[in-house]
Design a protein that fits this description.
mainly beta; 2 domains; nine-stranded mixed β-sheet
């Protein structure tokens, strides 16, 4: 493995990946845009060999990332969250497409200056407990996958969490304990997979009512998606007018609410001729979860 005074790195496909910072006691680390004549496009480590090692770093230090990066890999700042702390503000450059698992794990003293518009995936625990990251939620429209516990404990991010149409996967507990979140809005008409506890934002002393707003669907939204301190209200399409033709035996759900580990719905049903009629009573779904199939309502010619 090639090395310099400051770095260990690897070469693949004509570009460099930085794998270990070697210098001790640096308060300001400018990650290079090139090394050994190769452009630096990635920085990545492993659980046993993270990029920055606490024993090499001072109590507080800051980092500048180069604009040449297309990926921030795994375990980059995994080891520098306790006695030796990454601090200040980090700007993740435009062009970064992936952020790996444990990349900024428990970096509680650093603020992230937003996510790039090029980002497609965020790994497991990537921003776990980055509680100094403040401001409003903003996920890029290119994002497709959010790993488990990716933002757990990021309670200084506030307001509405908008899930872009591009997102197809949200891992378990991805947004757990994000106390500042007041609402979640899904933009897609196709349901992503949602892991258990993905939106369990409430904790003792911080009760939260969270609304998931989707225009045409709710799927894989489960009673155990939160915890006992979180109340969920799932907004499904406005109920169609009585008399509108649907397929026979179709049920159109109104507001679904989780209470006492059960799911209640206000419902309209279609009669044998496919006309919408009020349901005789609230439907009750027992058990851990439910799945609601999208109903696309169209007027007949």
């Amino acid at each position: 493995m090639p090395t310099t005074t400051d770095w260990e790195y690897t070469i693949s496909g004509g570009t460099a990946t930085l794998t270990r910072y070697r210098r001790s006691g640096s308060y300001y680390v400018n990650i290079p845009s090139s090394i050994g004549g190769y452009t630096v496009t990635n920085i990545s480590g492993t659980a046993s060999k993270p990029v920055f090692v606490r024993g090499n770093m001072p109590v507080y230090f800051t980092v500048t990332l180069p604009n040449t990066l297309t990926a921030i890999g795994n375990y980059v700042f995994y080891d520098v969250y306790d006695l030796n702390k990454l601090s200040g503000t980090i700007t993740i450059p435009e062009g970064v497409r992936t952020i790996g698992k444990y990349a900024f794990y428990q970096c509680a003293h650093v603020s992230i200056n937003g996510l790039p518009s090029t980002l497609t995936s965020i790994g497991d625990y990537a921003f776990c407990a980055c509680r100094n990251w403040s401001g409003s939620w903003s996920l890029p429209d290119t994002l497709t996958s959010i790993g488990r516990d990716a933002f757990i404990g990021c309670y200084s991010l506030t307001g509405t969490l908008r899930i872009p149409e591009s997102v197809t996967h949200i891992g378990a507990e991805a947004f757990k304990s994000c106390y500042g979140t007041t609402r979640v809005e899904f933009e897609s008409e196709t349901a992503p997979s949602i892991g258990s506890g993905a939106f369990g934002v409430g904790e003792s002393g911080h009760p939260v009512t969270l609304t998931l707003a989707g225009e045409r669907w709710v799927k894989n939204a489960t009673a155990n998606a939160g915890n006992e301190y979180t109340t969920f209200a799932y907004d499904i399409p406005p109920l169609p007018p009585v008399g509108l033709k649907l397929g026979a035996d179709t049920t159109v759900y109104g507001t679904l609410t989780v209470a006492d580990d059960m799911l209640y719905s206000k419902a309209l049903a279609a009669d044998s001729e496919g006309k919408v009629v009020p349901a005789s009573s609230d439907d009750l779904f027992e058990g851990a979860g439910f799945s609601a199939t999208p109903v696309i309502i169209t007027e007949e010619d």
